[in-house]
Design goal:
With 292 residues, this protein is α+β, with helices and mostly antiparallel strands. The protein has helices at residues 2-113, 120-147, 159-168, 191-208, 260-270; strands at 154-158, 176-179, 186-190, 213-221, 225-232, 274-278, 282-289. The chain has a domain at 154-289: Histidine kinase-like ATPase, C-terminal domain (Heat Shock Protein 90, 2-Layer Sandwich), CATH 3.30.565. Strand 6 and strand 7 form a beta hairpin.
Length: 292
C-alpha cells in the first residue's frame, strides 16, 4: 500500500505541474495577446493624434480661407461699386469741367479788363466766384485723376519746374506761405501726373491749416531714388484715421470727394514709388526710384 500510495502521490504532483504549466502557457498566450492589443491601441492612439493634428490644421486653414474669401468678396464689392461710381463720376466731371473753366476764365477776363470800373464789392464777389470755380475744378480733377487709368508718359523733368507749375494753378490764400526748396532734382516721370500730386497735397495742406500757415516743400536725392516732402502746420490727422486717408471715398472734409489722396497714391504707385504720412508735424513723404 505504501508503494502504491507513493506512486499515486507522484502522479498527482506531476499532473498538477502539467496543469499549472498548461495554465501558465495559456496565461502567457493571453498576456502576449493583450500586449499585442495594447501596442495596437497605442499605434491607433498615435494615429488618432496625427489625424487630430491634421484635422485642427485643416480647420485653421479652412477658417483662414473663409476669412480670405470674405475679404475678397468685400474687396470685389468695393471694386464693382467704385467702378460704377467712377464711370458715372468721370462722365459728370468731364461734362462739368469745361463750363466751369469757361466761368473761371470769363471772371478772370472781366477782372483784368474792367478792374478800374468795378467797385470793390463787385470785385470781391468776382473773387468769390473765381475761388469757388477753382475749388470745383480741383474736386473734378480729383475724380478724373482717380478714375483715369492712362499709362505713364515719362521723360526727364525738373521737379522744381513741376512744383512751380502746380503752385501757379492753385489759388493761394494771402495768409499761406509756401517755402520752396533751394535745390532742384531731375526726375524721370509723367509731368502732368506728378503735377497733380503736388497740386493735391498742397491744396490738402491749405485746407488742413484753414488757409493760414506755412507749407514747406523739400527735395532729396540719392543714387537710387528721388524723395520730396510736403509739410504743413495743421492740427494733424487723428491717429484712428491715419490708416484710412488713402482709402477711396474716405474723407474728413465736408466738401471733399474722398478721391484726392487715393488718386495721389495711385499715381505714385504707377511710378513704382511709395507715399507715407506722419504727424507732429504732418509730413507727406514721396519716394520715387530713379529711371533713365
Amino acid at each position: 500500500m505504501g508503494a502504491k500510495s507513493g506512486i499515486l502521490e507522484s502522479y498527482g504532483v506531476d499532473n498538477t505541474i502539467k496543469n499549472l504549466q498548461k495554465e501558465n502557457k495559456i496565461l502567457l498566450q493571453k498576456l502576449q495577446s493583450q500586449n499585442r492589443m495594447i501596442i495596437s491601441y497605442e499605434r491607433k492612439l498615435a494615429s488618432f493624434d496625427t489625424v487630430k493634428e491634421q484635422r485642427d490644421w485643416l480647420l485653421d486653414e479652412m477658417t483662414k480661407k473663409v476669412g480670405e474669401l470674405s475679404h475678397f468678396q468685400t474687396e470685389l464689392f468695393k471694386a464693382e461699386r467704385l467702378s460704377a461710381i467712377g464711370e458715372m463720376s468721370a462722365r459728370i466731371a468731364h461734362d462739368m469741367r469745361n463750363p466751369l473753366s469757361i466761368i473761371k476764365n470769363s471772371i478772370e477776363l472781366v477782372k483784368l479788363k474792367y478792374s478800374e470800373h468795378i467797385s470793390s464789392d463787385v470785385y470781391t464777389l468776382f473773387t468769390s466766384i473765381d475761388n469757388a470755380s477753382s475749388r470745383l475744378v480741383f474736386q473734378l480733377d480729383d475724380v478724373l485723376n482717380f478714375v483715369r487709368s492712362s499709362p505713364l508718359d515719362c521723360s526727364q523733368h525738373s521737379l522744381g519746374k513741376i512744383l512751380d507749375s502746380s503752385i501757379h494753378e492753385i489759388v493761394i490764400p494771402d495768409q499761406i506761405i509756401i517755402n520752396k526748396p533751394n535745390n532742384d532734382v531731375q526726375l524721370f516721370c509723367d509731368e502732368e501726373k506728378i503735377k497733380a500730386v503736388f497740386t493735391n497735397l498742397i491744396m490738402n495742406s491749405i485746407q488742413a491749416m484753414d488757409s493760414h500757415g506755412t507749407i514747406t516743400v523739400q527735395f532729396f536725392e540719392s543714387s537710387d531714388d528721388v524723395k520730396f516732402t510736403i509739410q504743413d502746420e495743421g492740427s494733424g490727422i487723428p491717429k484712428n484715421l491715419i490708416d484710412k486717408i488713402f482709402e477711396p471715398l474716405f474723407t474728413t472734409k465736408s466738401r471733399g470727394t474722398g478721391l484726392g489722396l487715393p488718386a495721389v497714391k495711385m499715381i505714385i504707385q504707377q511710378h513704382q514709388g511709395t507715399i507715407t504720412v506722419s504727424n507732429s508735424p504732418t509730413i507727406f513723404s514721396i519716394t520715387i526710384p530713379k529711371r533713365s
